């Protein structure tokens, strides 16, 4: 008797409303749930109302259509790789074997900044001018600090982090400093 009454209620001609919640979930209700409510056509069967699993699948498929941010082009990635490889080799030449712990620390900072730069999604419009400016600053730094190689290594890593911030809009929280 209870199942008969439930069946009669579900097969009645009451409209079913489909709404989208603020957080993107689909809501199906027998009462109007907002101004954007869409009335679903009923076929008179229990299968016309989407199940919870179907609702979850709809929500999942809508959320996976978000596009991931674009990555740097291959030539831009190669430029980043070349800059960091050259800087790493230069810094490596500054340290003796007995100072390997300090070298390892600087190389880990450099590797972290390198990976952060590779994850950048856009590059500045005036990239050529930014690179020229930072190349000149690096030359000046090398000329000024040629006697203190360790300080030069730290300053070059800081300068490279500043270049990445200018080129890719990276914040200082994403870049590590020596």
Automatic annotation (TrEMBL):
<dbReference type="InterPro" id="IPR025392">
    <property type="entry name" value="DUF4124"/>
</dbReference>
<protein>
    <recommendedName>
        <fullName>DUF4124 domain-containing protein</fullName>
    </recommendedName>
</protein>
<feature type="domain" description="DUF4124">
    <location>
        <begin position="4"/>
        <end position="40"/>
    </location>
</feature>
<dbReference type="Pfam" id="PF13511">
    <property type="entry name" value="DUF4124"/>
</dbReference>
């Amino acid at each position: 008797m209870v199942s008969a009454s439930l069946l009669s209620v579900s097969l009645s001609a009451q409209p079913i409303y489909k709404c989208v919640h603020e957080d993107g979930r689909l809501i199906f209700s027998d009462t109007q749930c907002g101004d954007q409510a869409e009335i679903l056509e009923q076929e008179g069967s229990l299968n016309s109302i989407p199940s919870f699993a179907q609702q979850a699948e709809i929500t999942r498929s809508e959320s996976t259509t978000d596009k991931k941010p674009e990555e740097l082009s291959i030539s831009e990635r190669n430029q980043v790789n070349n800059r960091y490889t050259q800087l790493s080799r230069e810094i490596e030449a500054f340290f003796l074997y007995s100072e390997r712990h300090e070298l390892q620390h600087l190389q880990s900072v450099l590797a972290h900044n390198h990976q952060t730069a590779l994850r950048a999604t856009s590059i500045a419009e005036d990239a050529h001018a930014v690179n020229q400016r930072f190349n000149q600053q690096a030359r000046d730094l090398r000329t000024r600090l040629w006697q203190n190689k360790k300080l030069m290594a730290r300053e070059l890593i800081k300068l490279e982090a500043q270049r990445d911030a200018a080129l890719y809009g990276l914040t200082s929280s994403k870049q590590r400093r020596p």
